[in-house]
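Example 3.2
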Amino acid sequence: MSLAQHQKLGPFGVLVQAASPGANPSALAPEELRALVREHHILVLRGFRNFADAEDLTAWCGTLGEIMMWPFGAVLELVEAEEPTDHIFDHSYVPLHWDGMYKPLIPEFQVFQCVSAPGEGNGGRTTFSDSSGVLASAGPETVERWSRVTVTYRIQNKVHYGGQAVSPLVVPHPATGAPTMRFNEPPIADDATFLNRPSHSFDGVADEDVPALLEELQKALYDPRHYYAHDWVDGDLVITDNYTLLHGREAFTHRAPRHLRRVHVLGDPPFKNPAL
């Protein structure tokens, strides 16, 4: 099955519709899938055979590369918990971040399967910011100033991640060396409902200038030229570029049926986390 017929999603990303409903995604060449994601940063496969369960999804993801394992296994079930202790399993928004920031290895790809969409009007879109595009649009003085900033992040290990990560705002892409951004956006300052709030400390910028820096970063990362929010459709299969993008989530209606599965696929060779 050819991937040549694809359409643009937004400022970045492409959509491939199945040639016939329920077509097998295993017929798609893994090397072509990887190439499309590296070029366009997001690849949405829609209308293909739905995976029956987490094991079925895992087997397919293994064709894309080495799967990154977590204490829970390969598949993270992203669904609102009965009694959440962390924002990931709440129905709140999730600030922009990159995956693996507290782990020894950083995955190159994220694979999401939409088991159940949130439903119209319920929110819950997954948000993406193309950091390479943000840097390309910023002036040289701005990029140079951002490049001097290093952020230390700390968060309690209440679920499957936590600890401390220290990263410059601007880092080279692990494979191409092109400039990208690594940033975990702070939650809204006065949001007392946000679960398991991380702490941030900044080096390379004066304390009194941090609020202006955060405002500047938010404006740049949410610029419509470099920002995309994905409306989930049941059965969507989405592969994303974790080396280049930052991602988050919009809040969704409490007890809406939003259910995603996520698998991480490592690069070749696997990329050791420089933030630890």
